[in-house]
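Researcher: I'm preparing a figure for a lab meeting and need a structural model of a single chain. I don't have an experimental structure, so a prediction will have to do for now. The sequence is pasted below. Please return the structure as C-alpha cells so I can convert it later.
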Amino acid sequence: MLKTQHYHLLVFFLFFSIIPSPAQTDSKWYPVSKIIDGDTFWIINANGQEEKIRLIGVDAPESRKSGKKEIGYYGKESKAYLTQILTGNKVRLEYDVSKYDRYKRTLAYVYLENGTFLNAFLIKNGYASVMTVPPNVKYADLFVKLQKEARDKKKGLWK
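Model: Understood. Here is the structure written out cell by cell.
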C-alpha cells in the first residue's frame, strides 16, 4: 500500500512538472533596443539578437501610417510616452498561454527594473486601451478596471 501511494505521488509530480505553466516569467533582464509604437518594441535577447515584443492585453493607437492603417488619435503621444519609459532601460518578460502571435512577435507582460508592470501602467495612464485576445487573458480583468478608471478621469487618449 505504501509503495502504491509513492507511485501515485511520483506520477502526480511528473505529470505536473512537464506541463508548462500558463504564465511563465523570464527572470532575465533585457535591454530595449528600439520602440516601434505604443505597444511594440524590440529587445536584445539572451542570444544577442533583436526580438520583437508585443505587449499582451494592450492596444495603442497607430503612431505611423502603414498599409491600410492611418495614424490614430493619440498615437504619437503613446509612442513618445513608451519611448520615454523604455529608452536606456531593461525589461523582464512574463508569458501567458501563447508565446507568439501570427506575426512571430513575442507576446509578453513586461516589467521594468523598478517593478512597474508596464502593460497595466500604460492602460492606467490612458496611453493604451485594453485588447484581450484569448487565450492570453491572465490580467484581462485588471486591465478593464484600469481602463475604466482612466476613462473616468479622462486620462491620456480619453481626454
